[in-house]
Amino acid sequence: MKFIYVLSGWESSAHDSKVLYDALTKFYPADYGFANRRKFLAPFRGTKYHLQDFTGQGCDLETPHELFNHRHASLRNVIERIFGIFKSRFLIFKSAPPFSFKTQTELVLAFVALHNFLRKHCRSDEFPVEVPNQATTEENMEGNNARDDSENVEEILETQDQERESANIWREAMAEKMWKDATI
Fold it and tell me: Which of 53, 64, 72, 111 qualifies as a cystine partner to 48, CB 3.0-4.6 A?
């Protein structure tokens, strides 16, 4: 429930493609609305996904796809919660602050550092946690750094269909490895 990476400071004049290119050096757990592609890690369709689908009697994980979706949903839940706590703790982020752009970017970094400090030393969230809206967090989703795209030029030259197929094969292998590790 701590921030490990923050990118603060893209000016409004930065082109969307420049921001997206920088952002795509990480993995983003995305919901069903996004295709599974390089850097966007979507759950398996047609497989139970929401955490409440996995609770109760007879709801044990039965397939690699269910295990993958359960872990994906758990990760997205933590990300939703951290942003809910952050916005509840620092109400300035609920509206556009009346400060210069430079000050706003510095505020983000300062409040992230303060949030992490409070998480480490206080361990209680005395602020109400907002119930997250499942469909609004893709822009806030950040995962771990992956590989540098400059290392593998042929990936950049893939068609969208080829990229989607490569990502699906990678996701399938990840689900199978999770399943194997969980059942050993």
Answer: 53
Determine the Cα–Cα distance for residues 88 and 125; give it in Å rounded to an integer: 10
Cα 84 from Cα 139, distance rounded (Å): 14
How many CB atoms sit inside 10 A of residue 13's CB? 6
Q: Considering the chain, what is the average pLDDT of its residues?
A: 75
Hey, what are 122's tokens? 């206080």
Residue 79 pLDDT class (50, 70, 90 cuts): confident
Angle between helices 101-121 and 64-89 (to 10 degrees): 110
% the chain with pLDDT above 90: 14
Percentage above 70 pLDDT, the chain: 71
| 88 neighbors 128 (Cβ within 8 angstroms) | yes
Secondary structure in 3-state letters for the chain: CCCCCCCCCCCCCCCHHHHHHHHCCECEECCCCCCCECCEECCCCCCCCCHHHHCCCCCCCCCHHHHHHHHHHHHHHHHHHHHHHHHHHCHHHHCCCCCCHHHHHHHHHHHHHHHHHHHHHCCCCCCCCCCCCCCCCHHHCCCCECCCHHHCHHHHCCCHHHHHHHHHHHHHHHHHHHHHHHHC
Mean pLDDT of 54-81: 88
Global confidence as pTM: 0.61
